[in-house]
Write a sequence for this structure.
């Protein structure tokens, strides 16, 4: 005679509730979320109220797209108008250079 296996389900082990995480104090804010004040030249584009760095970049891109300042042949290149030329210091800048120029106008 062959032994037959019984398929009994074992009760699931009870899970322990997760222990609350210990707070090590206030979180250090991310560099992109710290509010900064734009210079007068940059305020003409993004407004004069303090903004997070990420918001400054977003508003600058909104301005660039609204005024169609991207080079149609190379979307990475920005063709500066009078306001942006004050910030960039030149007529053309790449999107990679833009953050460097914006940073110089934030405090």
């Amino acid at each position: 005679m062959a032994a037959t296996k019984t398929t009994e389900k074992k009760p699931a082990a009870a899970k322990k509730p997760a222990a609350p995480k210990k707070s090590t104090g206030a979180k250090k804010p991310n560099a992109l979320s710290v509010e900064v004040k734009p210079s007068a030249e940059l305020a003409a584009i993004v407004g004069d109220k303090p903004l997070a760095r990420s918001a400054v970049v977003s508003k600058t891109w909104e301005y660039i797209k609204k005024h169609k300042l991207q080079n149609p042949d190379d979307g990475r290149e920005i063709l500066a108008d009078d306001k942006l030329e004050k910030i960039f210091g030149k007529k053309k800048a790449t999107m990679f250079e833009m953050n460097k120029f914006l940073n110089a106008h934030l405090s």
